[in-house]
Amino acid sequence: MPDQTGTAATVPPQSQQSRTKPKELYPMVGWKYDLFLWVMGVLVDLFFREVHPRGTWKVPRTGPVLFVAAPHANQFVDALVLQRTLRNDAGRRVSLLIAQKSVHGFIGWGSRQVGSVPVGRPQDSAKPGSGFVYLPDPINDPTLIRGVGTKFGEGEGEVGGMIFLPSTKKETGASVDIAEVISPEEIRTKRPFKGKVALQQLTGRDDIDEDGKYINKQVHGCKEGFQGTKYKLAPKVDQTKVYEAVFDRLRNGGCVGIFPEGGSHDRTELLSLKAGVAIMALGALAEDPDIGLKIVPVGMNYFHAHKFRSRAVVEFGAPLDIPPRLVEMYKNNQRREAIGELLDTTHQMLSAVTVSTPNYDTLMLIQAARRLYNPTGRKLPLPVVVELNRRLALAYERYKDDERIVRLTKAVKEYNKQLRYLNLRDHQVQYARMSIPKVIFTLIYRVAKLLTLLVGVLPGLVLFAPVFIAGKVISIRKAKQALAASSVKIQGRDVMATWKLMVSIFLAPTLYHFYSAIVTWKVYQDRLWGHVPEWVPWWSTYLVMWPLMVGITFAALRFGEVGMDIFKSLRPLVLCLNPSSMYGIHQLRETRARLSAQVTDLINTLGPEMYPDFEKMRLLPDGARTEDGAAAPPPTTGRRRESDGSSGHEPPTPPRTRRNTTQSSRGLPRNESFSNIGGVGIFSTRPPSRSRSRSRSSSSGGAIGSGGFPVSGFTTLDSAGGFEMASKKIREAMKLRRRRSGDAKLEISDDSSEEEDAEYTEARKKYT
After folding, report:
1. Biased-composition ranges for Basic and acidic residues (predicted)?
2. What element of type H or E holds 258?
3. CA–CA dist 763, 726 (Å, integer)
4. Whole-number Cα distances in Å, 319 to 67, 81, 252, 501, 759
5. Which of 24, 335, 580, 697 is the most buried (most CB within 10 A)?
């Protein structure tokens, strides 16, 4: 372990150390881990319609691995999905970090079965302090905090603890570490509070700009008559045991997983990463440079994560070997720089396996554009959908100020607005192409099919309605509570899936027992009105009823899923028969066709500028490729491309942009040496100041002055080499998939050589 002064302590070779292995709080037991995941996996399969793993061949089969997963959009369900995917498709067991406040009840019992590592967070143990606090001299002495009726050092507040300001609707309350307790009414913090909201709370002044600077510097105190603000105090949290447990598991070749955003959320963009993930990786390598630790990014991509029978794609990125340079920096009193650089790189790695947009409206726009851009007219595999969403999101970020994008954005949003007005989905607009007789026949057929399925749904719907109703009511209530306690959540949907599963786990067996007991009692009383023969033991009824109840539940879920899809398809058919709405849906179909042509033409125009492999990878109908496998030239629609010899005006290419990956390192305290890892809360990194630019267009990860180190080996979207690697893997994977299924759902270039086949096979062998 590094010493407390920030310099590297001499660590003897692993074989020479007489280290006594510490007793683990939740040890990893293989059979318990597998049994628990198998049981919970049944519930995951029932909740999700499809969980599609992607890139599991990249996961190292041996050696220590630190998995960093994001976005954390589904609270405890994320952990189940990740652990189950790794166990089934990569053969690895992983210990996840879990907040100490969650280690109770069923969640606590479950975390013990899978060997989780509990983490205490200062904010989880924060309690309201006595009196009020304010800044007596915010300009000349901003770290001095004075109180009225406070009891610092008298059972409230301690050196190394933290002080928290109240949260607002728009942001989390600011917090700082306590450096000194001067008196019961005065403390000094390690650094001053920053930000407009925090300074207004502590001074009551209105002359503070958006950058958190005072306009009238002649006034040194608070606003006249200001009484102070309420606050919370948290004790000092020693994370040494947490890091020791992590280091021990990595040192023994195990896997550790962390959601580096800290808590779960339902935002569409990645949040700032916490310092703990970098401290774990660098600390483990500083202790033993030869353990071979790798960092693997995991993208948790959900389609309506909170809804029952939704879909998900769990994507694994290429593993990262941490440069020895960063480890040396970490060992030689440059911890902040090393941690910040690794956080930026980790953020960039996660951006390559997730779909991140600034807000929900942009995400809806990207998904609409992806649906409009599908020349094959076929349903695309989920991994291809995720890849298209990701590329379109990056392209929109780069070209969003282009006049053509602005016009098309407005048109697509108007199209989405019309869909919502008619309560239709994009794929249902195609029903307007059908003739009236075909519409009538389809409607009658689907109604008959729906009535048939209803026979299988009704028993389960009636018997287990309490589970469905309670799950929805409780999940909505918990979502409101989570939203009220957080400033990063939008609607609190990240907790809904967890509570739906929790309610089902406890209430469904209770109902099974209740119904089985009633039927068993009836058999005991009068042989179920004489329908059960006398030779049948009455107690055997209970044993028969349990599997029967489970079967009825499963049938109701499966039939209900199909029936709901059919039910949703009836509305557009009825609209096609209604004279008052028929014209509107036909107009909507024409609008969609026009928008689809515009989106396709614009993508074909701008795509080659951003993606070198565009001509080989773009979607095409069957037979729309040249003999050499390249895409055939697109038809000219209106504006011709410059490569076609057109002399039309083309705007200058905007500068290449990347997602801003420095937002995580910006949150690191500048005067914190990180020499004592036990004093660093694993989730304690503050988010970047609102006064800093939130633009995601600055480059990082190897660029000059970016603070990141080159990551061209795994940036699948930010370099020509990375694009080529990603394209090669996608082509090979799709070829293998077509060979197995015999149905080419997506036309991909077949110009790969035997050398590429050998390289792909060699890559799989490397990680298997």
Report:
1. 735-748
2. strand 255-258
3. 13
4. 9, 20, 19, 32, 17
5. 335
| Helix, coil or strand: residue 137 | coil
Q: Which residues contact 129 (CB under 8 A, 6 or more apart)?
A: 150, 151, 156, 157, 163, 230, 231, 232, 233
What pLDDT sits at residue 622? 53
Residue whose entry in the numeric block shows the structure tokens 């910040």: 340
CA pair distance 678, 3, nearest whole angstrom: 12
What DSSP assignment string belongs to 159-205?
A: TT-EEEPPP-SSSPPPEEEEEEEEETTEEEESS---SHHHHHHHH--
Sequence-distant (≥ 6) Cβ neighbours of residue 120 within 8 angstroms: 100, 237, 239, 242
Q: Please check whether residue 427 is in contact with residue 593, taking contact to mean a CB–CB distance below 8 angstroms.
A: no
* CB proximity list for 579: less than 8 A, separation 6 or greater: none
Architecture in CATH for domain 26-117+240-335: 3-Layer(aba) Sandwich (3.40)
Whether residue 764 is predicted with pLDDT greater than 80 in this model: the reply is no
Which residues face 189 on adjacent strands? Answer: 178
Cα separation of the two ends of the chain: 32
* Sign, Cα dihedral of 340, 342, 348, 353: negative
| String of DSSP letters for 293-321 | -EEEEEEEEEESTTSTTEEEEEEE---EE
pLDDT digits (tens, 9 = 90+) for 18-41: 345 555 667 788 899 999 999 888
- Per-residue pLDDT at 11 exceeds 50: no
Nearest to 649 by CA among 405, 403, 396: 403
DSSP SS3 for 284 = helix
pLDDT at res. 564 = 87
Residue 410: CB atoms within 10 A of its CB come to 10
CA distance 696 to 718: 14
Burial of residue 166 (CB within 10 Å: 0-12, 13-18, 19+) is: middle
> For the chain, what is the total number of helices (H) and then of strands (E)?
20, 15
Quick one: pLDDT band at residue 188, thresholds 50, 70, 90?
Answer: very high
Among candidates 393, 385, 386, 391, which has minimal Cα distance to 362? Answer: 393
User: Structure tokens of 732?
Assistant: 């090979």
Report the pLDDT value the prediction gives residue 68, as an integer from 0 to 100. Answer: 94
For the chain, percent helix, then strand, then coil, each to nearest 5? 50, 10, 40
DSSP one-letter code for 531: T
User: Over the stretch 127-179, which tens digit does the pLDDT of each residue have?
Assistant: 889 999 999 988 888 899 999 999 898 888 888 888 988 877 656 678 888 98
Dist CA 238 CA 684 (whole Å): 12
How far, in Å, CA of 295 to CA of 68, rounded?
7
Mean pLDDT over the full length of the chain? 77
- Residue 108 pLDDT level (bands cut at 50, 70, 90): confident
Domain boundaries, the chain: 26-117+240-335, 124-234, 360-432+582-622+632-644, 435-577
**pTM of structure:** 0.72
Determine if the peptide bond prior to 2 is cis (ω within 30°): no
Query: Phi/psi of residue 194, each to 5°?
Result: -130, 160
pLDDT for position 383: 83
Three-state secondary structure call for residue 20: coil
Degrees, nearest 5: CA angle 146-150-155 = 125
Angle at 134 between CA 129 and CA 139, to 5 degrees: 145
- CB of 30 closer than 8 Å to CB of 254: no
| Residue pair 495/479 in contact by the 8 Å Cβ criterion | yes
Query: Among residues 717, 651, 588, 716, which one has the least CA distance to residue 405?
Result: 651
Neighbours of 5 (CB within 10 A): 11
